[in-house]
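Problem 12. The chain below contains 254 residues. Write out its predicted structure in token notation.
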Amino acid sequence: MNLHAKVIGVGQPFIILHGFLGMGDNWKTMALRFSKLGYQIHLIDQRNHGRSFHDDKFDYELLTQDLLRYCTQNAIEKCILLGHSMGGKTAMLFTALYPSLVHRLIVADIAPRFYPVHHDAILEGLDSLDFSQIKSRKQADEKLSEYISELGIRQFLLKNLYWIQPGQLALRINLKALKKNVAEVGEALPAQMSVERSTLFLKGDRSEYIGPDDEKQISVQFSNVRIETIPKAGHWLHAENPEAFFAAVSNFLS
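Solution.
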């Protein structure tokens, strides 16, 4: 039950947690840049994602325990922790529960509140992929386009495809478990949760994930917090405006 991770560079441990249906690899370009600042980047695949283990159970407490186990196994005593979306919620809860293990926290485009399920079309589209018929990424994209019009989202999802053997595609994610537990992704973190660690929240100016009411709630639960907006960016702010994202994180860490 160990998490898969790609480790880049040497220096202070810097853990990055991807969002729902993503994987550590989504952050590789950004990780290479951070590694040049003197950090050892750990691109983690959370359970049921990427190359990490599959399990029927899935919620934020389990994701937090997975991360604690990873830190113990890799002798990480203090890290910088960055989480996007679902990964941001894991990162928040982890910091609240194990503050001594986190030096600084960065949360990308997510608040600790409840979010209603909004991945139905995406999960339906992924579930429609019949790999006895689909023999190429192009065919998979054509099928997904029946459910998802945005090319960028389809390209993001198609990164989950891999060749299980020559001529046979499959999905890396544990789709069955993620469909069953999709409501857990939007669950609110405990209302009594509080974080004293230095924290940076980043939100996309075109995203609706963090609103004015969320900012008030964040300021209550996070006593040492900065909230900044990344221009020309939606929910995938690190991919949509990587320069501004990198600058904001770098300034916070320095």
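Discussion. Residues 60-73 form the longest helix (14 residues). Students who got a different answer should revisit the alignment rule from Section 12.3.
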